[in-house]
Amino acid sequence: MQEGVHIIIFLAITTCLILLLGGLMILVVYLYQQKRTLYQRTYSELKLKHEKKLIVTQLEVQENMFRHISQEIHDNIGLTLSLIKLRLNTLNLEEKEKASSQIDSSVELLSESITQLKDISKSLNADIINSYGLIMALENELTRIKDSSTLFISFKIEGEPVYMDSQKELIIFRIIQESFNNILKHSEAKNASLILKYSTSDLHIYIQDDGKGFPLTDPDSFSNKGKAGIKNMQARSRMIRAAMEISSKPDNGTLLQFIIPI
C-alpha cells in the first residue's frame, strides 16, 4: 500500500516536472519568436531608413551633376556661342579680308564648342567603366584634363588592382572626376597628383594639388560656403561607405584622402 503511494507521488512529481519543462519550452519558443519578430521589424525599419537615405543621396548627387552640366554649358559653351553670334552680327561683307578673318575665327570657336560638348558627353557617360574599367577610364579622363588645361597631373598605382562591381567603380570615378574639376575651377594649381593604393581590404585614394588651398571649416558647412563639389564628393562617398578626409591651408594646397572598402 505504502509502495503504491510512493509510485503515485513519483508519477505526480514526474508529471509536474514534464508539464513544467513543457511550459518552459513553450515559453522559450514564444520568447524566441517574439525576439525574432522584433529583430525582423527592426531590420526592416533600418533597411527602409537606409534605402530612403540612399535615395536622398542619389537625388542630391544627380541634382549637383545637373547643376554642374548647366554651369559648364553656361560658362564655357554659352560664352563661346555668344562670341560667335557677336562676330557674325558685326560681319561686314564689303571688308572681305576682315570678314574672312571673322568667319575663320567663328568656325574655330564653333569647333571648340563641339569639342567641349563631346568632352562633357564622354565624361557623363555611365558606360565608360563597362567599356574601359576604372584605371583606363581615369587615364583617359586625366589625359583629357591635361590636353584642355595647363595642369600637370601625375598618376600612380600602388599594390595589385582589385576590380569591383561596375556601379561602385563608376562612383569612385565620379568622385575623382569631381575632385579634379574642383582643382581646375578653384585651386589655381599648376601641379596635381593622383595615387591609387590597393590593399586586400581597402582602396586608398590620394588627390593632392599645389594650389591656393582654403581654410578648413566644418565639412558639413561646405555647401553653405559655395563648395558644392566637396558636398557632392561626400554624398558619393556615403553611397559606397567610404571615409573621406580633407587637409588644406591657405597658400598650401589641398589633399583629399578616401578609404574605400573593397
Summarize the topology:
Layout lengths: L1 H88 L6 H29 L3 H5 L1 H14 L4 E7 L7 H22 L3 E8 L3 E8 L18 H12 L3 E6 L5 E8 L1
Parallel strand pairs: 1-2
Antiparallel strand pairs: 2-3, 3-5, 4-5
Can you characterise this structure?
This protein is of the alpha+beta class and 262 residues long. The protein has 2 domains: 124 residues, no CATH class; 133 residues, Heat Shock Protein 90 (2-Layer Sandwich), CATH 3.30.565.10. It is built from 6 helices and 5 strands. A hairpin with a 3-residue loop joins strand 2 and strand 3.
- Main beta-sheet strand count, sense and barrel state: 5 strands, mixed
Hey, roughly how much beta strand do the residues contain? 5-15%
Q: Give the neighbour order of strands across the main sheet.
A: 1-2-3-5-4
CA radius of gyration is 32 Å
Mean pLDDT: 79
Name the CATH homologous superfamily of the largest domain. Answer: Histidine kinase-like ATPase, C-terminal domain
